[in-house]
Every structure is written in C-alpha cells, then in structure tokens.
Q: What sequence folds into this?
C-alpha cells in the first residue's frame, strides 16, 4: 500500500523463455492493481548459431538447416532460402515444382493455424476446443507425412525444385483431407465466433489499430486483423501464386467491421484455413506436367551454386506473416552472408499497444494472439514493496481461466 492508502504500482516480470529455444523474451510490466499501465520486453537473449553454421556449409546442406529453424514453418524457411539462391544462381524451377511447393506451403498454413486455434482455446480455458482443433489438425499432418515422409522437418524443398513428386494415387488422400476441413470449417467458425464467452474475452481485447499495425511494421494475420490489406501471395507472388486466385483475408468482409482485436485475429486465421483448402484444390486441378526439379543430381545444383555471385532476398508468406532470407554468394562453396528474419520478429513490437491498459488475466491470450514463435514462459516474478513472489505459467493460465469462468457465471 502507498502512504495515502491506495494500492501502489508494482513491477511484473514475465520470462525469460527457456534458453534452449529461439527468441526468448523477458517482459517487464508496470502494473496498477490488475491493470497494465506500460510494458517493455527484451528479445534475443539466446542465439542458436544457425546462420553461423550455414555460412560454413554449401547451399545444398544449408537447406537442411533452414528446415530446423522452426518446427511449424519448415516449408517456409526452406522455400525462402531456396528462392534467394535460385535468383543468384539463375536456376529455373520447373512449373510442376512450383505447384507442389504451394500445395505443401498451404497444408503447413492449415496445420499451423489449427495448432494456434487450439492454443488460443487453451489460454481461454476451453480445453475441449483445444482437443478438437488438435485432433482435426492430425489429418493435415498425416497428408504432409504422406507427401514428404515426415511430420516435421519435411526435407521436401531443395534448391531447384522439390525432392518428391505428387503422384495421382495421392490426389485422393489430399482431396479427402480437404473435404473434411471444408465440412468442419462451419463448425469451427461456430464454436469460436458464436460463443458468447469467447466474444466477451476476445472482443476489444488486445486492440491494435490499423495505424499502429502499419507504423510497427506488423505482418501476416496480426496485420490483416487490423485491416491492412497485405499478403505476399497477393502483392509479390512467388512459386505458383501468380497463377492462382489469392486475396488477403480481412475481418470486415466476414464480420462487417474491423476492431483489430484478438477476436479479429481468430477470424482471419479460421477463414485462411478455408482459403488454403481452395488454393490446394486449384493447384490440383491446374497442376502442370513435367519434371519437379531443375537437376536430378544435387551435385549438379551444387556445381552451379559454387560459380554463382550476387545477392538476393527470398520472401515467403508464412502462417505468421512475411519471412525473408537474405543470401550473398561470391563464387565460393559457402555463402559469404546469410540472414534470416522470421515473421515473429516483425510482430513482437505490437505487444506494447495491445497489452496497455489490459488485465493480468488477459496477458496470455493477447501474447498468444500474434502466434509468436516462442517457447512457454519459464516464470513470472512479481516485485511489490521490495518483496518478490513467483507466478508460474500454470498460475497465469489459472488466472485466465478464472476470468472466463467469472464471465460465464
């Protein structure tokens, strides 16, 4: 208590994230009771050295490293890196490979958005909805495994194309999966968007205005949920996207207005699941024939890359937004420079306006709403009047669930 009898402001620290995972973050909140008055954070407390390792390997080997930057966005990073190298080495990717890349890219978007939807439901205290979304996500993972051989670290994209073709026998597996999701989409939309409690927890919570989204250079669903009409697949098509009908998913056409809140971020991601199904169907119906790699032997690709000089940027619309890889090559076996900027890096600053004036119980869902590529919060330390107490991640989740239960009553 302050000397005047009022509750004294105090500091609330969240983090850092477990150091073995990338992008650990330390949050520092200035609190007034249960309300956030200001927030700051410090990312980048751990560096795994992937770029350093890559600059000591050749481009064919680096592709396998890029597949391990993110467990959810394997296609994204391998594709972005390959696009950059292909530009420098002037390697022409066959049309069929471009279509296969898009199909796998969109399946990755589907499973990523469904994973996020489950996490969001859990943060709000709806674990039955978590189990439903993660159960239906399994079908997309099964298709990815059937097409690539792996559920994660797919190893399907290579410089010059893809490692495996999609044969006619696999079309039915893909189409069965798409039919399942198209049938489930209405149910998922109803469960998330027509639930009164979810609306009370998410509507006008964690608001990011269109102006703030642009000024903070946000990307992906975080940006589109604030009404920014931006999507690399639409604005700067790569792979086969130039041949496809892709438009950025915005809240207003579906909900009649844009709030830029957690609820709108749910809207964008769920409708993007439906859009991905349509894109995959279009790819299957328009799939060109021909080879699926520029060169069958990786040694030939490597020989071309060793002679290449120049620099390029590969840009890809990841499930979380724009991801880019910068590569510079000087006619040597290894790149002289390789820099990765994942989409989470662009979205982290949006937490500051989102969290201001919100309650402690809303922190978990607001932080999760940008779908950050971060591991679980290690701990929370509260310092009040010089005394420190510890809140675990379970304590934060409990506070969020208790708020949901209060609203339901």
A:
């Amino acid at each position: 208590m302050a000397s005047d009898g009022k509750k004294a402001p105090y500091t609330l620290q969240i983090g850092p994230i477990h150091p073995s995972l990338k992008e650990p973050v330390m949050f520092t909140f200035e609190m007034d009771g249960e309300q956030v008055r200001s927030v700051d954070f410090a990312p980048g407390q751990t560096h795994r050295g992937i770029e350093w390792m890559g600059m000591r390997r050749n481009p064919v080997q680096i592709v396998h490293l890029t597949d391990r930057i993110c467990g959810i966005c394997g296609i994204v990073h391998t594709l972005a890196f390959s696009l950059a190298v292909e530009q420098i080495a002037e390697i022409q990717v066959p049309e069929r490979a471009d279509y296969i890349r898009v199909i796998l890219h969109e399946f990755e978007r589907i499973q990523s958005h469904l994973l996020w939807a489950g996490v969001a439901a859990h943060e709000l205290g709806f674990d039955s909805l978590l189990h439903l979304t993660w159960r239906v996500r399994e079908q997309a993972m099964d298709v990815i495994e059937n097409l690539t051989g792996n559920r994660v670290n797919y190893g399907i994209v290579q410089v010059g194309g893809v490692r495996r073709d999609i044969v006619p026998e696999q079309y039915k597996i893909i189409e069965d999966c798409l039919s399942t999701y198209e049938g489930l989409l209405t149910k998922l939309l109803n469960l998330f968007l027509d639930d009164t409690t979810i609306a009370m927890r998410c509507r006008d919570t964690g608001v990011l205005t269109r102006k703030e989204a642009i000024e903070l250079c946000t990307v992906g669903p975080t940006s589109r949920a604030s009404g920014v009409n931006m999507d690399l697949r639409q604005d700067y098509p790569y792979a086969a996207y130039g041949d496809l009908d892709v438009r950025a998913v915005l809240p207003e056409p579906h909900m009649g207005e844009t709030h830029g809140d957690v609820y709108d971020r749910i809207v964008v991601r769920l409708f993007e699941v439906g859009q991905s199904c349509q894109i995959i169907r279009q790819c299957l119906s328009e799939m060109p024939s021909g080879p699926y790699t520029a060169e069958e032997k990786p040694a030939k690709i490597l020989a071309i890359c060793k002679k290449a000089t120049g620099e390029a940027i590969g840009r890809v619309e990841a499930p979380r937004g724009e991801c880019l890889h910068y590569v510079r090559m000087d006619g040597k076996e290894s790149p002289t420079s390789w820099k990765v900027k994942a989409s989470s890096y662009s979205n982290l600053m949006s937490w500051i306006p989102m969290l201001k004036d919100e309650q402690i119980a809303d922190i978990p869902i607001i932080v999760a709403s940008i779908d950050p590529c971060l591991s679980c919060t290690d701990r929370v330390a509260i310092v009040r009047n010089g005394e420190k107490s510890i809140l675990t991640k379970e304590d934060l989740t409990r506070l969020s669930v208790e708020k949901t239960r209060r609203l339901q009553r």
Notes: Strands lie at 10-14, 26-32, 35-42, 157-158, 161-162, 309-318, 321-330, 337-341, 380-384, 387-391. Residues 10-45+357-408 form one domain.
